Amino acid sequence: MDLTRGMKKVAEGIWEIPRTAKEGMLVPARIYATDELLKGMDEGVFEQVTNVACLPGIQKYALCMPDGHWGYGFPIGGVAAMDAKTGVISPGGIGFDINCGMRLMRTTLTEAEVKPKIRDLVDRLFHAIPCGVGTKGFFKLSPDEFREVMTHGAPSVIRRGYGWPEDAERIENLGRIPGGDPDKVSAKATSRGIHQLGTLGSGNHYLEIQVVYPGSIYDPALAKAMGIDREYQVVVMFHCGSRGFGHQVATDYLETFARAMKRYGIAVRDKELACAPYASPEGQDYFKGMVCAANSAFANRQVITHRIREVFSDVFKRDARDLGLEVIYDVCHNIAKIERYRVDGEEKELVIHRKGATRSFPPGHPDLAERYRSIGQPVIIGGSMETGSYLLIGTAMAMEESFGSTAHGSGRTMSRTAARKKVNARDLLERLDQRGIYVRAASFAGVAEEAGMAYKDISEVVDAVDTIGLSKKVVRLQPIGNIKG
Fold it and tell me: Which end is more exposed in the chain, N or C (fewer Cβ atoms within 10 Å of the end residue's Cβ)?
């Protein structure tokens, strides 16, 4: 079935597939993309986003961001809002790595100060922050302490000295989503997560040292308000989530939901969209378990922040505060949140699924911490280790158009298997080194999978959300050092 045949362009960068395109669609599907990005999207995106449009209780549209590509159930880059009273919650709309997200930290250092020490700095970070499949961290917790992490997130480790008191106000939801219940998490999930705080993991997870080069600051006032105030300034960005803990929570509840759907008379077009009514016992149990994994991810990124400060302080022989190693922001991009929006003139409580999509709240939003309420929420969109990344800001347009959501990254154009076949990792590392980007990796396969050619053009994705108005471009950040799983 050619689902694009009836698709129409409703505004610049916004494409709509009507409800008539597929039997069972309850709402239209919307794709955000430039003409060029739309041409490059795989057919799976159109198939999956229209399947999402069939889920019970979905509101307004099923959405896909410009970085969209085939995922598990939902497209990666997918957003869907479900009525909290009548709609469902679906792990496929959140992802296995629950609260996979980005954190960005500033420094007062310049490229001239960092570049001579970049190899030492990257090597020490590589040893201080374990990465790769199945790695365990140096951060040891008792079962009771891990339960506290599940319910209290980043503040639970900040209280133990792994951070600064002000860090929490620079994290989405202040580093803690309320409502987690460790009793809704299996023993197997707990055993997978308890020793993984302070670790990057594998796949597309990374830690990167980046520079603000001349011409890369698009809005100096907004950049300065977020802590970026000069050219050649060095920042640190990293990308990771809840690791094996979140994966097991998702796996456990997908099995539960597959059985529950029969009891609730729910049929889905793809078994990967297994779901349950949000208000049902099964839906509530999953949400409470998902929150535990999300809080663990916040704590994971917080421990990594502490390690970064330790390494920088050791390499530069200066206190981390003197180096200005402050958190700019931390965002989730695999999560379900309960938020309120107006739909057809009625304010509703909705379950917002963001799977490979980032929150993009505007100035004045009550859910923003005081520090950012006047300018809006920082948005972090990560690229590949070859291309750089972006810092943006949330907009009112996102609230009207996309349930306060925007893109999260470049978006793959090539499978990991295909990338491994096409890319020689050793050659790639040598080319990157010649370009002034020093990379340490847990495996050559991981390097090949994350080559720039396997991703969309990050600048094109960012320009698309900027043009549509889902977020506003502020600063481009380019890599000089990287550690990968």
Answer: N
